[in-house]
Design goal:
2 copies of one chain form a homodimer. By secondary structure, the first copy, chain A, is α+β, with helices and mostly antiparallel strands. Helices cover about 60% and strands about 10% of the residues of chain A. In chain A, helix 16 (about 520-550) packs antiparallel against helix 17.
């Protein structure tokens, strides 16, 4: 029996109390209020718990079947997916004109995302990728492509993928060799092999819409020469040449030269296909201008990076809930200060400080990440404001937060899954309890959508200097204001003081990284991972100080008292890692770079 | 293709140069010299690489088969095991009178153990457990039991297990309910259910010898009332009652009331059975005195704890070697200071500081742990000295090091396996490359033989105060001497100074833990895990300073220069975590214990 309750109370606290989201979404023109959003969250939580969660272990055990170029998903997954379409659960944030609900982005990206990945990570990626394709298409595609594909993507009838990686080109997309040859009718013929394509092939939907990066003849070397193409698995039945204007949604029986050559055997997410895709003279259409493929793909990629971070949170949360359930049942040993339940043969393991430490590390990191996720989600909506200042502010922070949410959340999530397994001892290692699946599933999140090392480089090497450092200044403003506001509030001292120290430390480390990095980029790259983790901790510290502040308004209520106790745990037992991280960054690159390469 | 080369060069450096083991083993009366031990290590490395390694992935994929109470192992495992017996590879350290080779314990526990677990962890546990049973039996068993069982155990013809855990009693053995009823003929009838019994049932050997903890009628409550019994799966054919004196080694066809009720499905070590064992009025014989079961089992347990720590090292080493092989082949991106291989489309990923950081973290932690393992292995031999002072010194250090080797090595090993997977990106997550198996397999090592939290409590709550603090004093003596010796050697400053700081920090933290722990044991328990990790880091710091010192004698030779560079990396990029650990310990127990239990 796998336990899961969606953290609806926490969402309410974050969105309505800590971030007071209603005025913002009203101002942004959403026709949604607090109550409706709560109802929507509850409805989705119920659906995910009733339909997705019960088949999650089955998905792990049975997995997918690859045969003759086709992938067959477990029937239970197909049924569940169909129910999701019928319930409108894949179209909460797509446009009403495409059959969507047009809910705020934060609902989809944070609430939907966390619950989806917690209850069935393998399944969750399919609608998440589809939404990414829908969004890129709608923002950059020609009207005729938008018209033809949007409704089916918006409602989940057709699925989407992103096709970037090639066997020799993963992180380094500049060296891809897929080709797209322009045709007289305005279409292209796309040829190449892509690997690690999530849901590249499956039988959950009637059609699969691939966004493929390729190079056109004579395009510049490197990433500058890359263009994005839309290549459907099946073409419309009545298509002969040219564009898709007015064509029916009935599909040809023959593949559009798109074949799946295999699916990787993986450590986890067994019900999420990871495909080798061959495009052989496949008909495709350009999305966006020539040579803008990287920019467009990065728009989708950034969305998926945030989604991956939140996936870490989802899995860490369900791992926590299941190890907690175990701990509540398990009796071993005695409270060191004397038996708590003398009538029982042993006390519950929650009496043991080290067990509590583990559970609190999990819980407090989860809630801190959730708060930062909530803020980021709201910023995603603010990026669509009519006010250019708000757009700039929100875009700057999202640019800054994206690598941190991706890397810090998933690093911490993998540690949390391990900690939760540890709470359970031998049982945690057994398949009977689902935590071992979460431990395996969540591990991909550190790799997906750019490894966490790449995220750290993006943060340290790009995001902090981007726009003349504006990203960071936009963050420092609310941070400094908060610290000033709370400087003289005695009960905030225990949170505000270390936060202030952390922010000062972050500023010093940032200056060090920039200064030394200019002289030698190896310095910056050698410290990037530790810098990203330092930054993540400072943001979580801000979140915890903010939550504690809000909770103090309702002291005496157990929910709010627990928040204050959690904030205290964060500052005492998690945050101190910043001290070591600073020391490692300051130690520079020499110990890393001067090790003789031939002696590895 | 899985890569593995046993670290023979490193063993040579450690045993012969850093610890100069030959005079010690001569003094202890072993008839072994440096050359013979090198040959033995080479022979074992060849056997493990040729026989064990090629079937390791098969073991993971095929696993074991449980049917009608019997476990069938893959035929390849049975063949390999037989070859191991024939080669004498399971009897290197057992006594010559039982057909063993009588090699020094360090050979078996460190060199044999690391290579065995690296090449085939699932297989390695069988001979390791058997040896544990052999040793306990020989030290504490009645002569008639020793005579009957030893030769078959010593050579691996029969296997051994330790049966402690029951469904309701894992860490808390005081509440076990297995019973042993004394019989008139001097034997016992043992009844009870034991879970998580590694190799509790299998078809690798003709017989399985279980050491079972149980309670005799009227024995005291708790761990004080526990006695150890030897219960074979099969009794001798000609046994009717009484003891085993002079009986043949031909066995009955019927089980001795010992049945396997199932084997757990686990995340890893699929070819290592984890059994539910039922003893139903099984014939057994007492090992050692009544009510000494815990003490005796702990002797075996301590041996297995060290073995588990070294298993962590073995898996971390093979994970490192395979991620390194990948990294050497993989070309992505360019050196940030300009292309290294301009003729290639991309540079090798070893140019990237963050990739080097990951590989060095793995390598340097592995080599540091190996050094501490080597020292511990030699101390195990010294425990058998004729000189009571040497025995006391060695026993004290082994008592202190056991929880650290178990917990620190395995914590670090799990992190290392993850780091190595990360180096490989998506490939690391795929089954095709074996690192994902190592990642799953190694995870049990944090749980086995007492979770790492239990190890930390053993260290902080028992080992540092045991014998009036003598354990710690025996460590401080060589540490202080080393620091003094190197105080004025300029090239040692970069290692000696932080080592000195760490040792002082350790002393202060120890005093804090003892003082505060007396007032409130929760303080001690809340800080135990961080304290254990701090201690582990200080010991590795000592090892690295010692290795650097030795390496300086041969500066200019690439092997020794790499050791100095590794020591530098350790002090710059790993050791600084001690600062955070100290802060967490000092923050005390309140943030852990005052969180309201009902709000978890």
């Amino acid at each position: 029996m796998v336990e899961y309750e969606a953290p609806l109370r926490d969402y309410d606290f974050l969105f309505n109390e800590v971030f007071d989201v209603t005025p913002t979404i009203k101002r942004l023109g959403y026709d949604f209020d607090e109550d409706f959003l709560s109802m929507l969250a509850e409805g989705w939580a119920d659906h995910a718990k009733e339909v997705w969660l019960p088949i999650n272990q089955l998905g792990d055990r049975v997995g997918l079947k690859f045969e003759n170029g086709e992938i067959t998903m477990p029937q239970e997954f197909k049924d569940a997916y169909k129910q999701g379409i019928e319930g409108g659960w894949f179209s909460t944030s797509t446009k009403p004109e495409h059959g969507g609900m047009g809910a705020p982005i934060f609902f989809q990206s944070v609430i939907w995302g966390e619950i989806a990945t917690a209850t069935n990570m393998a399944m969750s990626v399919l609608p998440a990728l589809t939404l990414g394709v829908y969004d890129v298409l709608n923002e950059h595609g020609d009207q005729v492509l938008v018209d033809y594909f949007s409704s089916n993507l918006a409602q989940g009838h057709w699925a989407g993928t992103m096709c970037l990686t090639e066997p020799h080109a993963g992180t380094d997309l500049g060296i891809i060799s897929s080709k797209a040859i322009p045709q007289d009718d305005g279409s292209y013929r796309v040829t190449g092999t892509k690997i690690f394509i999530t849901y590249g092939e499956h039988d959950m939907t009637e059609n699969i819409v691939h966004l493929v990066l390729a190079k056109t003849p004579g395009s510049p070397e490197g990433t500058k020469g890359i263009t994005m193409f839309l290549v459907p698995k099946y073409l419309p039945k009545d298509w002969k040449s040219g564009d898709l204007d007015g064509l029916s949604h009935d599909l040809m029986q023959e593949h559009n030269g798109v074949t799946c050559a295999g699916s990787e055997e993986k450590m986890g997410i067994h019900a999420s296909p990871t495909c080798v895709m061959n495009f052989d003279n496949s008909v495709g259409w350009r999305v966006g201008d020539l040579h803008t493929g990287m920019k467009l793909m990065f728009q989708m990629m950034n969305q998926e990076r945030l989604a991956t971070g939140i996936m870490g949170l989802g899995l860490a949360e369900i791992a926590y809930q299941n190890s907690l359930a175990w701990a509540k049942d398990r009796r071993q040993g005695r409270d060191l200060r004397g038996p708590k339940d003398p009538k029982e043969p042993a006390d519950n393991i929650l009496v043991h400080p080290d067990v509590r430490r583990m559970l609190l590390e999990a819980k407090v990191n989860n809630e801190g990440c959730r708060a930062l996720a909530a803020w980021t989600g709201i910023l995603l909506d603010q990026m669509h404001s009519d006010d250019p200042d708000e757009v700039e502010y929100a875009s700057s922070l999202v640019a800054l937060f994206t690598p941190i949410v991706k890397a810090h959340f998933t690093d911490v999530a993998c540690e949390t899954a391990s900690t939760c397994m540890q709470v359970m001892g031998g049982a945690g290692y057994c398949t009977e309890y689902a935590v071992e699946q979460f431990y395996r599933d969540v591990r991909i999140s550190k790799i997906w959508e750019g490894t966490n090392g790449v995220q750290a480089l993006d943060l340290a090497g790009r995001k902090i200097t981007q726009n003349m450092g504006k990203n960071l200044r936009h963050l420092m403003w609310p941070l400094t204001e908060f610290i000033e506001e709370n400087r003289d509030i005695p009960e905030m001292l225990e949170f505000n003081k270390p936060l202030h120290q952390g922010v000062r430390g972050l500023q010093q480390l940032t200056l060090l990284m920039i200064a030394e990095g200019q002289a030698n980029p190896h310095f910056l790259a050698a410290g990037a991972t530790d810098y990203c983790r330092y930054f993540g901790n400072v943001l979580l510290a801000y979140m915890w100080a903010k939550m504690a502040k809000k909770a103090m308004e309702k002291k005496g209520d157990p929910f709010y008292d627990a928040k204050i106790a959690s904030a205290r745990f964060f500052f005492k037992r998690i945050y101190p890692e910043t001290v070591s991280l600073a020391a490692k960054i300051q130690s520079g690159h020499k110990s890393v770079m001067e090790y003789p390469t031939e002696m590895f």
